[in-house]
Amino acid sequence: MAFLKNILSAHNDAELVEQYKSGGDVNVLGELYARYMELVYGVCLKYFKEPEEAKDAVINIFEELVTKLKKYEVSNFKSWLYQLAKNHCLMKIRSRKSQPAMVDVDIMHLEENNHLDNIAEKEEQLNGMENCIEQLPAEQKQAIQLFYLKEKCYKEIADMTEMEVNKVRSFIQNGRRNLKICMEKQAGIANERKAEKI
């Protein structure tokens, strides 16, 4: 086993991604993930604030990786994993929206107040993103929804929409750029409103 680990360690991220995609060996994925577990834990701790919850999330994200890495074209594993971890945390926080926590206001610490403010801010950003998706041109909107929300790969989207893969890639890239512009505008408006209230 140590021999296998040494062999895997000699490969770069892209090579391990390809090995895992072609062979489906979870040991290969484990070696790749181990390189960035501290990064993932740091991201999770930033959002959840609780070490135990962050550790659980690290395990859950690895379980997501087992299926998701096979579906996506990943050119930079580290940045893709960072985004995956971030999305996992945001979705977990968002799912709690309908489950209000029982909080004793008298014993709530300042840090917890800040944490709740952060959650509210992330929730606002997610709502803003949904509004921006609705404003996209039809093809970009469809491609973005299928890629990010339905978790379809380029080829699956091409098959479903009868578009060429290059067209799908273009719609996703342009849609992502337009989303960013839209969300930056919304953030600017939100900041202006906050400044007016002060």
Give the arrangement of secondary structure elements.
Blueprint: H1 2-9, H2 13-23, H3 26-34, H4 37-48, H5 51-71, H6 77-95, H7 110-135, H8 138-149, H9 154-161, H10 165-197
Helix pairs in contact: 2-3, 4-5, 4-6, 7-10, 8-10, 9-10
The succession of helices and strands, N to C, reads HHHHHHHHHH
What's the architecture of the largest domain, going by CATH? Orthogonal Bundle
Mean pLDDT: 78
Number of DSSP strand runs: 0
How much of the residues is beta strand, in percent?
A: under 5%
State the helical fraction.
over 70%
Your description of this structure?
This protein has 198 residues and is an all-alpha fold. The chain folds into two domains: 100 residues, RNA polymerase sigma factor, region 2, helix turn helix motif (Rna Polymerase Sigma Factor, Chain: A), CATH 1.10.1740.10; 87 residues, Winged helix-like DNA-binding domain superfamily/Winged helix DNA-binding domain (Arc Repressor Mutant, subunit A), CATH 1.10.10.10. The chain has ten helices and no strands. The radius of gyration is 20 Å and the shape is flat.
